[in-house]
Design goal:
Elements: E1 40-43, H1 50-60, H2 67-75, H3 77-81, E2 83-89, H4 91-100, E3 122-135, E4 148-158, H5 167-182, E5 186-194, H6 198-205, E6 210-211, E7 228-234, H7 237-249, H8 253-263
Parallel strand pairs: 4-5
Antiparallel strand pairs: 1-2, 2-3, 3-4, 5-7, 6-7
Helix pairs in contact: 5-7
Length: 264
Amino acid sequence: MLRETATTTLLRRDNQQSTTSQPTASTHSYTKTPSLPTHITITSVTAAILPSFRRAISLILPIRYPNSFYTSILSESAASSLSRAAIWYDRSRASKRKREDDHLSSRRSAKDQLPDDSLEKGELVGAIRCRLEPVPTPPSSDGSLTAEHQLYIQALAVLSPYRSHGIATHLLETVIAEALRMHADVSGVYAHVWEANEEGLDWYKRRGFVVEEPVIHGYYRRLKPDGARIVRRGIGVRDWLRVKDEARAAPDDDERRTSRRVSE
């Protein structure tokens, strides 16, 4: 199971301090992001989705987390903004849904994509939860402190039967875009990956991440070997272009109200 998690980031222990080193610009070329199939939707995590969100992470990641790790997504705006779920519809329902939404852009605001009863119509197959962390930077020439942030991937998981559809990539890119909307000074994104998860490390490398040295031994208490590697990449032009594209494609308020009436 663990070696199959090509799109899975193993979570860090809650009581261990995360790294605050500067994000490193990647020297790797990016893998072109495939278009997301029409029967898969990326959405925010609602109360109705949360149990399935938790189940997906618990099933794939061999680490248990306190209830607050999940419930904070509903109670804290930052956690909510940086968490997303992937919903898989059966193709017949997806075709009907597409016909109803033809008058809208294919890149609607994630918070408007699904009603709270979404799991009655589809299956949650992917999950991501991230957080923004401040990056200590040297004072500027005038003595003032300059603030930067980096995005930390706490959990990224896709159920095994639903991989190879670009779901994990779209989950990650969606959250990166949201982080840039929240803080224009986000300079990089990083994660911890189990040292024996060669497929997972390769997945990150193919998406522009650099695998840093050395191995952090003793990071995963329940795994053998117990080390973790940090994977990191800088924020680039492509990330900002996605933000601009989504802003350009987002429907106005009247279109969103029409969409809700249609879906009802």
